[in-house]
Design a protein that fits this description.
single chain; mainly alpha; 23 helices; 2 domains
């Protein structure tokens, strides 16, 4: 390795970082200074806290407590590390390979520098020094055997960083296509959420009442003796840190050293795989596919068995944009289907819908796992209304800016001869699957999760339609009156005027008031059951149908004035949605 070249590259990276930090206004410099001071204080606190904890606590702690504490440490670090990975894959390398390939610099040297630069993350800076200080404190307080914790912990961090760097390089090579890039970011976000909520769903839904962790009062000693826990710590390398800490607590240093050696070996395999993938990518071998051989026989047969065959005699399959929707005109159906196709292909729409779905899953699991009580049973009628309100609250910002994702495409909408009333209805129908789809799935699961009757489920169906009409009316008003442009590939809006921010804040603050119409029917059912006045379920159904009818009439009556307002605001909306603000 040429140390002069390495020193030059390090100086170049430092200069680029310094220029980025010093660029900007005085306020940004002050905020960066405050963040730097807070980071230094956290680092000092992590080192001192780890040393004091290792010196005082490890004298009396049992092996089961060490296993459980190390597992919690591993889970927290992996969660924070995966969150940081989402930001890392959206950024370039510390030193761009392509800009330096014409220089006499080794690719291995650049790779090593970029890997070391990838280690400078808040989670690793916070956890690594604290763990080493913890091991040193335990060594001074409990014996030299705890020195084995240092190579064990370093091997754990090396394993995680090596394989995530390999994964990051593979994902970056796939994300050359901007559309694929946004889809990958969306998929990783969904995967992280599922990993975080996986244990909650497993123990509270799939194994509700059957888990040994539920059937007995779990202690660290019993946790240590569970067969699932022992097998997991033998098979999963990230858990070898906890297994090694448990063996150190039992006085056995050799198994901990063996686990540390295994972590270093697996980490070396990961970094080797990352280097070979990088080498293949920059040599042009990564992602290449063999070209089909030409047909030299002169026949008209297809070149491969997978080639498309003639479809003579078979009716052509209609595409999505060729569908016909019942009860609406053709131009309205075309607008709805075109908007739906555009939203299905936009990864930012998937990101926008991810939050409400996650909230619904979490609250549904909590409802399914709750302990029944007489007081709680009397309020079961409010469960559908509450969940529909939570789902609608997460969709407010999406429906309140229905044209924000169009950006320059709004110019085509402005040139359409379609009546603006039909345009508004078509855009609302495009959002119907994203609102009604999750809502119907939720309502179908509620009889199983919350024990609701068929009559209550039917009432909640009308409440869902009521809430959708309310959302459409509110969304149409805000989309026409206060539109704002959304940056491509993200949910980040452009610089918004203060009035837009204020109005959106007020709408989110007072949104529960808009959900009053769907809470009145279950309230009437509860009061009827309390005072024994008639059949509460039938009263709930009658009022739900009434509220739904009023909401539909209100939506239909709002279309004509909103269409006239749309025509007056069309030029201003075009300017706002097509203007790029840096």
């Amino acid at each position: 390795m040429n140390w002069e070249q390495l020193k030059t590259l390090v100086w170049l990276r430092w200069r680029l970082t310094r220029n980025q930090m010093t660029k900007g206004s005085a306020l940004n410099a002050i905020l960066r200074g405050i963040a730097l001071v807070c980071g230094v204080l956290l680092l000092i606190g992590s080192i001192l806290g780890g040393f004091v904890a290792g010196y005082n606590i490890f004298k009396h702690v049992a092996a089961g407590y060490l296993l459980l504490a190390a597992d919690i440490f591993t889970g927290v670090f992996l969660f924070l590390w995966l969150l940081g990975l989402l930001q890392e894959i959206q950024r370039a390398e510390a030193i761009d390979f392509q800009r330096l390939m014409h220089l006499p610099i080794s690719l291995r040297q650049l790779f090593t520098l970029n890997f070391v630069a990838s280690l400078v993350t808040p989670s690793l800076i916070l956890f690594l020094p604290g763990t080493v200080a913890l091991a040193l404190g335990a060594t001074l307080g409990s014996g030299l055997k705890w020195l084995a914790l240092i190579p064990l912990a370093l091997g754990f961090f090396f394993l995680i960083t090596a394989w995530t760097y390999c994964l990051r390089g593979w994902l970056v090579s796939l994300m050359v296509n901007p559309r694929r890039r946004r889809s990958i970011v969306t998929g990783i976000t969904i995967a992280i959420v599922l990993l975080v909520q996986g244990p909650n769903l497993y123990f509270n839904v799939l194994r509700k009442g059957n888990s040994p962790l539920r059937s007995m009062r779990t202690t660290p000693e019993r946790y240590d003796r569970l067969p699932e826990v022992n097998w997991a710590h033998r098979l999963l390398p990230p858990l070898w840190l906890a297994a090694g800490a448990r063996e150190l607590g039992n006085g056995n240093a050799l198994p901990a050293l063996g686990a540390g050696a295994g972590l270093w070996i697996f980490g070396w395999l990961g970094i080797r795989r990352a280097y070979r993938s990088t080498l293949r990518y920059y040599q042009g071998y990564e992602g290449t596919t063999p070209h089909p051989r030409p047909n030299l026989s002169g026949s008209s047969a297809p070149l491969s068995p997978s080639a498309p065959k003639s479809g003579v005699g078979k009716p052509a399959r209609l595409g999505l944009l060729e569908w016909r929707l019942p009860w609406v005109s053709d131009d309205t159906a075309a607008m709805a289907l075109a908007s739906l196709r555009s939203m299905l292909r936009a990864p930012e729409m998937k990101m926008a819908l991810l939050g409400p779905i996650i909230m619904l899953v979490v609250f549904a699991v909590l409802i399914g796992a709750r302990t029944r009580s007489p007081i709680g049973d009397s309020f079961n009628v409010f469960i559908p209304s509450g969940l529909l309100t939570i789902m609608s609250f997460g969709l407010v910002q999406l429906l309140a800016n229905q044209f924000g994702f169009d950006r320059n495409g709004f110019r085509s909408l402005a040139l359409f001869p379609t009546p603006r009333r039909n345009l508004i209805v078509g855009r609302n129908l495009a959002y119907a699957p994203f609102v009604l789809g999750p809502g119907l799935i939720l309502l179908a699961l509620l009889p199983w999760l919350a024990g609701l009757t068929v009559l209550s489920s039917l009432c909640s169906l009308f409440q869902l339609l009521t809430m959708f009409c309310i959302l459409c009316i509110l969304g149409n008003i805000l989309s026409i009156g206060l539109p704002f442009r959304i940056n491509p590939g993200s949910l980040k809006p452009t610089k918004q005027p203060p009035k837009v921010i204020l109005v959106l804040l007020i709408v989110h603050l007072f949104f529960p008031l808009l959900a009053i119409p769907i809470f009145l029917p279950p309230l009437a059912e509860m009061l009827a059951g309390t005072f024994s006045v008639g059949h509460g379920g039938l009263l709930n159904l009658a009022l739900s149908i009434l509220m739904c009818g009023l909401a539909v009439c209100g939506y239909a009556g709002s279309l004509t004035p909103l269409a006239l307002w749309f025509e007056k605001r069309e030029k201003e909306m075009l300017r706002v949605l097509t203007e790029v603000i840096e």
